[in-house]
Amino acid sequence: MNYVHKILLPFIEKHNLLYKIITIVILVIIGYITYHNIFDNSFHFDDSVWRQLDQVINEDYIGLFDFNFFRVLPFSTFIYNYHVYGEDTSGYFYFNLSVHISNALLCFTLLLLIFKAPIIKDKQIAIYAPILAFLGALIFLTHPIQTQAVAYIYQRLASMAAFFYLSSCVLYLSFRLSENYYKKIIFLILLVFSFVLAIFTKENTFTLPITIVIFELVLFHKQIKIKPRQIVILVSIFVALVVLAQIGLGFDQMFKPQKSPYDDIISSENYFLTQFRVISTYWRLLILPYGQHLDHYFPLSESFFELWTILGFLFNLLVISIGFLTLKKHPIISLGIFWFYTTLLIESSVIPIRDVIFEHRLYLPIFGFVLIVLYIVFEFINKKYFEYILLLLIAITLLYSYLSYQRNRVWQNDGTLWTDTIRKSPLNSRAWNNRGLYFFKKEKYDVAIYNFSKSIELRPTYSEPYSNRGTAYFYIGQYMKSLQDMNKSIELNPKKPDLYMNRSNVHIILKDYKSAIKDIKFLQNSQPEEPHSYSALARCHRELGNWDEAIINYKKFLEFVPNNISAYINLSICYTIIDSLDQAISTYDRGINANPNSIELMIRKADLLLQTGKKQEAKQLLQKIRELEPDYPGLAQKLSEF
């Protein structure tokens, strides 16, 4: 360790500010190099959800509280990105990467503060704090498990939540370690502010008070002593969080059984049992980051007495026991273990979530892993070879950087992403279905049908691929096969309204208008604001000769879509058929007001004016058309007739 003691540590002590600046520059450069290949990647998965939100489209920041009470801040950034960059993903990814690099810098700061805590500061490891903090930040920055929160736009939720979580921890330790009264007040005020921002970023930040208590007990007290005042504060915070959770989510919704992507029921019980295996997998992904993919195939544990569930339970029990057993002699290990489990508490406990495992959920818990690695490297490996160990750690972070760079390429588009998932989880029915959707959007319907069929083969009770395959059959004109798949999809999931709308389209093509009307009515019972259902219903009634019903539904459709040209035309035709010509002309007028440059509406109105003997008005309208589009086919012939 001569080089470290004689050159590096004295340089850091003498030029501490310069060292921190160099650290920032290095982390920014390595972060950019690691992730510079993501900027041309596409939107993925849940990105299709938030891009269709009315709040995002209409720039309605306040309306986000109605959509998701505890995710207002990240969704606000989506609104901003959407209105600045539109469909250009580069701006979204620059934001994600900026947050990730900022979090690495917060890790560096937090590690420095931890090594200054009373329990640690007099130990030999504290001497090497600047070096270890830099290495810890590098691990956090480059570890491949972090890619899902950076290369997947939607999962900035995880990185933004970590930003405010880490900031709050930095502010708390700064508050506890500062000896200046006024600085302590400032740190405390900023801590409260940061915690409030964290709460409105993602629900997993609700564990922050527990983490702060763990910091207090592990880093500041050799013996656990809790004062009555502290108990009052903790109880008050807990009650406030409970009330806030009830307001924002409601406990009935929070613990309500969920449907898995395959329509299986996920209860608090089987979700909790499954997490024993999930958390064990998380540890494996941190220690050996191989086999990463978006959608792990992870069947539910239905009983504690399943072999892998028992093994998962015993593994986690062992790790948590180590956390308690090492509390006095090796508090950093305890802190790392407790951090890991606390930050997973919301997403890996008894609150059922539709997806039992996701890699981005490790974005914040990885800091606990970093603490453990740094401490083990220093404390349990022969200090004689410390310099070589440092070089090895740097080499590992460079390897991490390369692996992350390679992993980012998988996120290029939905084709590469779901192909990677299928390769690693070939039994994953949802992955086959989603790759089928990718090919469907590319209009490669035969390839899409193959993927949907594979999804159905793996999971015959999964309703979505039946609907998707039915739609693909619809596009290639195989209507009976389409109808069969639509029927099967509804049989498996009879309460999903969208499926009925899809089937109604097939009924319309097959001229079974009465069946189509039944399906559309079912949809409207649960989704009365779905505009296209009124257009489809109007078409059915028109084909059946129910002109009054057709008129009612076209008018309803135009309330939602007031500039739809074809709806104005069809509504006018219905009025013409029942000899309400004035109403027909008036409808064309409303259509032209909504679409002032629509030549088609003007031509049709002119024809109707001629039909009713209003030649002068027709002539004036045709002359206006000539001014707008003099070469319109047949226009000269119509004018010559006057």
List keywords for this structure.
642 residues; mainly alpha; Serine Threonine Protein Phosphatase 5, Tetratricopeptide repeat; two-stranded antiparallel ribbon; 33 helices; 2 strands
Write the layout of secondary structure elements.
Blueprint: H1 2-14, H2 16-35, H3 47-50, H4 54-57, H5 64-67, H6 72-85, H7 90-114, H8 129-142, H9 147-150, H10 156-177, H11 181-199, H12 208-220, H13 228-248, H14 251-254, E1 258-259, E2 265-266, H15 268-287, H16 307-325, H17 331-343, H18 366-379, H19 386-410, H20 414-424, H21 429-441, H22 445-458, H23 463-475, H24 479-492, H25 497-509, H26 513-526, H27 531-543, H28 547-560, H29 565-577, H30 581-594, H31 599-611, H32 615-628, H33 635-640
Antiparallel strand pairs: 1-2
Structural class: mainly alpha
Strand order of the largest sheet: 1-2
Helix content: over 70%
The biggest beta sheet is recorded as: 2 strands, antiparallel
In percent terms, what proportion of residues is strand? under 5%
Mean pLDDT: 90
Low-confidence stretches: none
Helix segment tally: 33
**Number of strand segments:** 2
Give the end-to-end Cα distance, rounded to a whole number of Å. Answer: 102 Å
CA-based gyration radius: 31 Å
* Structural shape: elongated
